[in-house]
Structure formats: C-alpha cells, structure tokens
Amino acid sequence: MKILSLCLFVIIQWCAASVLGIYHHDIDWIRQHLASKSPYPTTRVPSVDTITKSYSLEQLQLVIRHGTRYPSDGDTKDIADILALLQTSKNTSALPWLKSYQNIYTPERSGMLSGLGQSEEYLHGRRVARSFPELIDAVMDNGDLALRFSSYTSSSERTAQSAMAFQLGVFQGRGQLSKAKQFVTPILTYARDNDTLIAIDDNCPAWRAQVHDNDATDLQADQYRLLAETSIADRLTMDLGINITTKDVDSIYTGCAFDVTHHDTVDTFCSLLSREDILTLEFREDLSYYYKYSYGNKLNSKVACALVQDLVKEIEAAAEDKDGYDKLSLKFGHTQTVLFLQTFLGLHQDPEPLVANLSKSAIDNRIFRTSKIATFASNVAFQMLRKNKSDKFVRILVSETPVKLTGCSDEVCPYEQFKAILEPLLKCDIQEICNE
Ligand SMILES: *[C@@H]1O[C@H](CO)[C@@H](O)[C@H](O)[C@H]1NC(C)=O
Ligand SMILES: *[C@@H]1O[C@H](CO)[C@@H](O)[C@H](O)[C@H]1NC(C)=O
Ligand SMILES: *[C@@H]1O[C@H](CO)[C@@H](O)[C@H](O)[C@H]1NC(C)=O
Ligand SMILES: *[C@@H]1O[C@H](CO)[C@@H](O)[C@H](O)[C@H]1NC(C)=O
Ligand SMILES: *[C@@H]1O[C@H](CO)[C@@H](O)[C@H](O)[C@H]1NC(C)=O
Fold it and tell me: Which atom of ligand 3 is the closest one to the Cα of 243?
C-alpha cells in the first residue's frame, strides 16, 4: 500500500508501481510506447505550422498512414486466444478486470478504421486548413471544385475512410453542405494488384521472396523474444498458475495496445506488464519492423522508388511552376508505405544496425522507433517553398516534425541541393527492383 500511495502522490508518469503484481501506468506514457499501434500524437503536434511566416508554400504533398484501426485478423485471433487462456487462471485477484471484460475485437471489425482513427485524420486535415489557408484558396476553383488537388488511396476500406476524414477536415467551411459547410473532394483508389506507390509490398515479388518469405527476417526479433520475454512469461506463469509462453506475452501487449486506443484504459491487459516489460515489447516490435520494412534489409531502402519518383516529379512541376500542377496531393497508405518512404530517404537511421543483443543503453537511445515514426496516422510531408521567384526550398516533415535530409544544409533544404541529393537514388527502376 505504501508503494501505491507514494505512486499517487509522486509524479505518476515515473511511477508504474506493482501492488500484488498488478501494474498501474500513466496512459499518456503508454500511448507513446505501443510501437506501430501507438495512436497519433494529436495533442503533442503543433496546432499550426508557422512556416508560411517566412516562406510561401507552393505545394504540399502528404503520404499518410490510415488512422487507428481495429486489430488485424491475426491480432483479433491472438486477443481472443489470450482471453480464453487467462480465463483458465484461478488467480482472480491478479485479473480483477477479466470477469466483466467485453471483447469488442470481433472478426468482422478486423482492420477497420475506428472512431479515434477518423478523428486523428480529420484533426490533421483541420491543422492543414488552419496553417495553409492560401494553399487551399489556390486549390479551390469556381467555388465548387477542387482542381489542383489529388488524393489516392490503396485498395482498402481504412485508407479510403482516412482520406474521407482528412479531406472533410481540410475543406470544411468551403462548401454548402450542412451547417459545417462541408465540401466533398475526389478520392481515387489504386487497384490492389497494380499499386507500386502505396501498397508497395503487395506488388513487389522480389520483396515478397527476399523479405516477407525469408526466415532471416524474423531472426533478430525472435532471438530478442527468447532473450528478453522469457522472464516475463515465467513470472506470469508463476503468478497466474497457467502456462504463459513468450507468444502469449506478445498477445497481452497487443491487447494492452488496443485497449488503450479503443477504451482509453490501462487497467486490463496493460496491468499485467511492468514499465520495463512494455519497453521490451516495444523494442521487439521495432526489431520486427526494422527487418521487414526498413534498414534491416537492403531491398527495403529501394522499394519506395516509384513513390519517390512520383513525389519528386510533382515537386519539380511546382518548382518550375508548370501549368496546373497539383498544389495539394495526398496518398493514404499503410505502415509499410511510410516506413519504406523514410527508409528510401535515409531518415531515422541508427549508425549501427538494430540487433537482438544490443546493450540496454543502445536500445534506449535508438533512433528507429515506430512509436514515433510509424504510429497510426503517421505521415511524411513534402513542402515546396519559395522566398522569392528564384529562391526555392523543400522541407520534409515526419508526423508534423521537420526532419533534415542527410546532405541538406538545413531542414529548409535549398531546392538544388535537394535535387542533387536525390538524383542518384531516382535513377532506380521499380520493375528491375521488384522483379526477381
Ligand atoms: C496471484 O497473482 C499475484 C500477482 O498478480 C501474486 O502476487 C500472487 O502471489 C498470486 N496468487 C497465487 C495464489 O498464486
Ligand atoms: C497499371 O497501372 C498503369 C498506370 O499506373 C497502367 O499503365 C497499367 O496498364 C496498369 N496495369 C494493369 C494490369 O492494370
Ligand atoms: C504446463 O506445462 C507443463 C510442462 O511444461 C505441463 O506439465 C503442465 O501440465 C502444463 N499445465 C497446463 C495447465 O497446461
Ligand atoms: C552480438 O552478437 C554478435 C554475434 O551474433 C556479436 O558479434 C556481437 O559482438 C554481439 N554484441 C554484443 C553487444 O554482445
Ligand atoms: C531572393 O531573396 C534572397 C534572400 O533570401 C536574395 O538574396 C535574392 O537576391 C532574392 N532574389 C530576387 C530575385 O529577388
């Protein structure tokens, strides 16, 4: 009890105390450690982008992951299985929440955008509208069209819904529909089997063979699971009197993540995990994504070739002020879309590769963190900026935080410098890269 009262009176954020093995966490801390299932940091991003105080924004291109969703098929099954297993425990005092727990993660809801996911995208759209009213003015045509605008999604419900929510946010107040003066704008969806820009992994046979179907891809994450999760599994096995495997520990983390994003609670699955456990599970998931979608495999730094070619072609059109170039261009995709893109650009790369036996301090200080760079609704923005007719710049932001491309003198990167850095990379050919 002493620890608990200390915990209530001391700063809760730093205090995840265990009373009889039940852990209490600060929900806002956990939200930032759920790896690719972390919700978007809506309350932590700037409410406006002030870049237009110093530059004029000629064009904005955004590549956006869908917002928070229901668990995928695999996670839905894992949550149902772990619930059934926990129900066999006789130690009900360790699981005070379980008896009245309602599992909302049903198979028919799997993968669908949640209410939170809608609002993440909508509020991001509102911030764009608030930050760049002149850009939106330039997109509007004749009061009832958005002409210099494009929006593409992968072939999935959650990305199409994300586009809709985002665009409602951007164009709200510009139309005549309802009191909110809503204005609807087009959305185009790429065919599932012909989408080398967004659902890249579904359309790249070489990636499927060399990364997805390659046993070596999971090696480091599997080793780390064995190394770091065995003691967690043993502790839970002891406390709960049922056999808990390291895979079950993963499922508990999954349940914890979705109960945070769907129920705003840390009092269910999360209460079985200590703060250290959560950091461990976060790194294990990072290892998995690092090898599957990022620097862990050389091919991952090439597969966004067609996407970056497309983005840079648009930037060039804006820089050269070509007739009718798109002022606002949106693409709605998935974790792999934002990670392949960042990996192609060399962003958030650790100097040493991430491996299972990394030291604690190297793990704590790693740069590659999906909880920061691949959350739900995470995004990469390309801004084409001008000082005057001749001085042009490109600025890149990841989830609304400016980043510096290696080789650029500044976050606001001179256009010629930006082009020179990317030129060698853009000689790539997606057909060559993806055909085995
Ligand atoms: C029940 O679990 C708690 C941890 O939550 C543990 O402290 C306690 O010893 C367990 N009780 C039994 C009878 O195993
Ligand atoms: C795929 O899309 C490209 C344009 O992006 C088009 O030229 C091609 O015909 C499409 N292929 C199929 C099989 O639909
Ligand atoms: C747990 O596993 C041990 C062997 O590792 C086995 O003897 C025991 O029956 C299992 N208990 C349950 C409840 O499955
Ligand atoms: C990690 O393991 C590799 C071999 O798999 C070894 O070369 C390396 O020195 C180890 N690193 C640490 C920090 O133990
Ligand atoms: C554009 O602005 C820069 C300073 O930012 C100045 O040095 C340059 O002369 C200007 N060019 C023109 C054409 O006005």
Answer: 1
Q: What is the pLDDT of residues 219-237, one digit of tens each?
A: 999 999 999 999 999 999 9
- C-alpha span between 148 and 324 (Å, rounded): 6
In a 3-state reduction of DSSP, which class is residue 17? coil
Distance of CA 157 from the midpoint of ligand 2 (Å)? 21
369 CA → ligand 5 middle, Å: 39
Backbone angles phi, psi at 65, to 5 degrees: -80, 150
Nearest-ligand number for the alpha carbon of 360: 4
Note the pLDDT of residue 390.
85
Which numbered atom of ligand 4 lies nearest the CA of 362?
A: 13
Is residue 280 a contact partner of residue 228, using CB atoms and an 8 Å limit? yes
Is residue 93 within 6 Å of ligand 1 at its C-beta?
yes
Q: Count of alpha carbons within 13 Å of 350, Cβ hemisphere only?
A: 19
How far is Cα 211 from Cα 194, in angstroms, rounded to an integer?
A: 20
Average pLDDT, the chain: 95
Reading the block at residue 329, the tokens are 């261009």
Residues with CB under 6 A from ligand 4: 357, 359
Specify the pTM: 0.93
d(CA 199, CA 88) in angstroms, rounded, equals 40
> Which pLDDT tens digit goes with each residue over 274-323?
999 999 999 999 999 999 999 999 999 999 999 999 999 999 999 999 99
